[in-house]
Specification:
The complex is a heterotrimer of chains A (271), B (226) and C (255). With 271 residues, chain A is an alpha/beta fold. In chain A, a hairpin with a 2-residue loop joins strand 4 and strand 5. Chain A has a 6-stranded mixed β-sheet, with helices on both faces. Chain A has a 4-stranded antiparallel β-sheet with strand order 2-1-4-5, covered by helices on one side. Chain A has helices at residues 62-69, 92-101, 117-127, 133-146, 162-174, 192-205, 219-225, 243-248, 253-263; strands spanning 24-33, 36-46, 51-55, 77-82, 85-86, 102-105, 180-184, 211-215, 228-233, 236-241. Chain A is globular, with a radius of gyration of 19 Å. Helices cover 81% and strands 2% of the residues of chain B. In chain B, helix 1 (2-10) packs across helix 11 (196-225). Chain B is mostly helical and 226 residues long. Chain B is built from 11 helices and 2 strands; from the N terminus they run ααββααααααααα. By secondary structure, chain C is mainly alpha-helical. Chain C has 11 helices and 2 strands. Chain C has a two-stranded antiparallel ribbon with strand order 1-2. The longest helix of chain C is centred in the N-terminal third of the chain and has 38 residues, at 12-49. The chains are: A alpha/beta (271), B mainly alpha (226), C mainly alpha (255). The B-C interface holds B 70, 73-78, 81-82, 85, 89, 164, 168-172, 174-175, 182, 185-186, 189, 196-197, 199-201, 203-204, 207-208, 211-212, 215 and C 1, 63-64, 67-73, 75-76, 79-81, 83-84, 183-184, 186-187, 189-190, 197, 200, 210-211, 214, 217-218, 221-222, 225-226. Chain C: Residues 22-232 form the ABC transmembrane type-1 domain. Chain C: Keywords: Amino-acid transport, Cell inner membrane, Cell membrane, Membrane, Transmembrane, Transmembrane helix, Transport. Chain C: It is a multi-pass membrane protein.
């Protein structure tokens, strides 16, 4: 459904203008805040087009992990390879190029509050990617239709519900046809009845060629949509497995305890 | 430059405390007396007015706001002029200039204090007031024992800013020839004529030190409360 | 209560003085506001792009001009700094020129006008810089992160995301500062500048109609303040829009 929106960007031979392979690889990634270690040696390989769900208790470092990919946080040591190329010592321009190829959806939506829904999408197209305004306008409207928000194009974020804002935020992240899209707990700030509309948009996006890495608490989404589940706790990846295997036969004891708490909260002590 | 320095040292005691020996305080001393005097009047008055505005929304609050807008909508110098002419009419006698200016400053500052304390009262979580109500406290008790102690600590940065403004505003006494620091510096400049830079830089420096001291003190006091 | 004689201030020579003073106040307010705005832009630019040195310079500027009284600053500019300017320039200013009169017979190319406008501008710029900085800081960090994640450069981030919202946050205090500038122009009477306050006192010493003159002056300042406040508020950006609570929104969603 979304494949038609992924036209490749104009020919530009600089580093990250177009990724040949939308792969993400973590090599011995360590992140510390002062003395406090948050990630203790992460090794993970995400193949192009894959959908990876990252699960774990709060404080496990899962948000930090994906924020390192587009460098909203910086590495303490180790390396992250995108498209097989190291991303640690990028020039400012190369970093901006990289970020414009990687979409990011925030837990708190972070829509630009002084702009309408449509303007939220056209701004980066015009200012970062240099699109003419008519083209940006058309693209924004197409994306808003795809996420079911076409009638709210002229509305400001403060008149939209949480679920509506998050759908616009996803459309905004998709505007530049990114090859990798990151979701940082996209439904955690939503009221229960709005979670479904966002998950449906994400479901339509999955397996359309874009690499998706999703930090989430939505177990059903992980079970049905993900190709692989990564379980992280205490800053370390404890288990990586396809969803059927992870949810039915988790091998790591901490993963088992986590699943018990989450899936069966009133009977946590039962095995 | 050294020559300029001498004009300061020659006139230093006049600049610092005016003709104190003749019973007429002036200079920095008078500046401080006026500032503290005005603050001593404006603080309780402003708090009382804020309490009234908080307790009685509607006509009383609107009237107080209108009064504050009127006071602060005109230049401070005009407040001084009004006091200068109205006070003798009301009290029948002649008041010393410094006292008139002090009263004008207090009147002007009370409006700012009222706004600041009222904002602080409205910024407190509603639960504070509701808890007091549920225990049967009256409004005055609630204010005095529960709300104002919190509000005054929270609004200390804003209140110290108001006091710094007050310190600077004492310089307006220059316009009505009351001999605080700025007036006195102007007199020295008129007499000596050739070192205006030294005189006014010195004056500015004194105010700067006074204001920064207040700022630092306020920061020191608010920090432990955090 | 003495009888008030309004004729004594609203006719003849006193009226001329009032009008002249009022127009002078308006022109010097405009000039001062212009100087203040330009200096504020310079300070903000320096603070945002000047590195450690730039930030320190702006901090010193702000600290110096906010912690000394405006009157002392005006006295310094007029009595001390003016004499430091080259003699040739001062002579040009003191001489009469046909182009140095503004509508309303206000002479702007005079030491008094120039020092007043400059002094008011410098003083107000220190306050404006802090107000706008506070407005920028109040923009939630999520806005910044979203823009960074989209690949915005620092300059575009400032121009399209931070500045529009920051200025909207700060607009009410900014308007307050410009209104202050208008009221503080009254202090320029202390250096002999013939604006409204000076003229009011002139009437007082001319025919002793103090209360009437003060009333007219008070009314003019009040009305100008209200008019200016309304105008600036209208011209400026609206503040950050209020979010409705979840309960309000849920009841509006179609079933």
């Amino acid at each position: 459904m979304f494949s038609g929106l992924f036209s490749s960007s104009a020919a530009d031979a600089a580093d990250f203008a177009h990724l040949a392979q939308a792969s993400v690889t973590f090599c011995d990634v360590v992140k510390r805040y002062g003395d406090r270690p948050v990630l203790k040696g992460i090794n993970l390989s995400v193949t192009p087009g894959e959908v990876v769900a990252i699960l774990g208790p709060s404080g496990s470092g899962k948000s930090t992990l994906i924020r390192l990919i587009n460098q909203l946080e910086t590495l303490t040591s180790g390396e992250i390879l995108i498209d097989g190329k190291p991303t640690r010592q990028l020039s400012r321009r190369a970093l901006r190029q990289l970020r414009s190829r990687v979409g990011f959806v925030f837990q708190q939506f972070n829509l630009y509050s002084h702009l309408t829904a449509r303007q939220n999408i056209t701004l980066a197209l015009e200012q970062v990617h240099g699109w003419p305004s008519a083209q940006a306008h058309t693209r924004a409207d197409a994306l808003l239709s795809q996420v079911g928000m076409a009638d709210k194009a002229e509305q400001y974020p403060d008149t939209l519900s949480g679920g509506q804002q998050q759908r616009v935020a996803i459309a905004r992240a998709l505007a530049s046809s990114p090859q990798i899209i990151l979701f940082d707990e996209p439904t955690s700030a939503l009221d229960p009845e709005m979670i479904g509309e966002v998950l449906l948009v994400m479901k339509a996006l999955a397996h359309s060629g874009i690499t998706m890495i999703v930090v989430t608490h939505e177990m059903q989404f992980a079970r049905e949509i993900a190709d692989r589940v990564v379980f992280i706790d205490g800053g370390q990846i404890l288990e990586v497995a396809p969803p059927e295997q992870f949810f039915q036969h988790p091998s790591h004891p901490r993963a088992r305890r986590f699943l018990q708490k989450v899936l069966n909260p009133l009977h946590q002590d039962a095995v | 430059m050294l020559a300029g320095f001498s004009v300061i040292t020659d006139n230093l005691d006049y600049l610092l405390w005016g003709r104190i020996s003749a019973g007429q305080p002036g200079g920095v001393l008078l500046t401080l007396l006026m500032a503290f005097g005005a603050a001593a009047l404006a603080l309780p008055a402003g708090i009382a007015l804020a309490g009234l505005a908080w307790r009685y929304p509607g006509v009383i609050r609107q009237t107080l706001f209108a009064w504050a807008e009127l006071i602060r909508g005109i230049p401070l110098i005009f407040v001084i002029f009004w006091m200068w002419y109205l006070l003798p009419l009301m009290t029948g006698g002649d008041l010393p200039g410094a006292l008139t200016v002090t009263l004008a400053l207090a009147w002007f500052t009370a409006a700012a204090v009222m706004h600041s304390v009222l904002a602080g009262l409205r910024a407190l979580p509603v639960g504070q007031y509701e808890a007091a109500q549920s225990q049967g406290f009256g409004a005055l008790q609630t204010l005095w024992h529960l709300l104002l102690p919190q509000v005054l600590r929270n609004t200390l940065p804003s209140l110290s800013g108001i006091f710094i403004s007050l310190l600077k505003d004492t310089s307006l006494a220059f316009i009505v020839n009351v001999p605080e620091l700025t007036t006195v510096a102007g007199q020295v400049n008129n007499r000596v004529q050739i070192y205006p830079a030294a005189i006014f830089i010195f004056t500015g420096l004194v105010y700067y030190l006074l204001c920064c001291t207040v700022e630092q003190l306020a920061k020191r006091i608010t920090r432990p409360a955090l | 209560m003495p009888a008030l004689d309004w004729q004594g201030v609203l006719t003849g020579q006193p009226l001329q003085w009032i009008l002249s003073g009022f127009l002078t106040t308006l022109w010097v307010t405009l000039a001062g506001a212009l100087v203040a705005s330009l200096l504020t832009l310079a300070c903000l630019g320096l603070r945002l792009t000047g590195g450690r040195l730039g930030t320190a310079v702006v901090a010193a500027w702000v600290s110096l001009f906010r912690n000394t009284p405006l009157l002392v600053q005006l006295l310094f500019w007029y009595f001390a700094a003016w004499n430091g300017l080259p003699q040739a320039f001062r002579a040009v200013v003191m001489a009469d020129h046909p182009w140095s009169v503004l509508p309303g017979n206000v002479w702007w190319f005079t030491p008094e006008f120039l020092c007043s406008a400059w002094g008011l501008g410098v003083f107000t710029s220190a306050f404006l810089t802090e107000e706008v900085t506070a407005g920028l800081r109040a923009v939630s960090s999520g806005q910044r992160e979203a823009a960074l994640a989209q690949g915005f450069s620092s300059w575009r981030l400032l121009r399209h995301i931070l500045l529009p919202q920051g200025l909207a946050n700060a607009w009410q205090p900014v308007v307050g500062q410009y209104l202050n500038l208008m009221k503080l122009s009254s202090l320029a009477s202390g250096i002999g500048f013939a604006e409204l306050t000076y003229q009011v006192r002139q009437i007082e010493s001319y025919n002793a109609h103090a209360l009437e003159a003060f009333s007219v002056g008070t009314a003019l300042y009040l009305l100008t303040g209200i008019a200016l406040g309304l105008l600036l508020t209208k011209l400026g950006p609206t503040p950050a829009r209020r979010r409705k609570t979840n309960t309000e929104l849920r009841s509006e969603e179609p079933c």
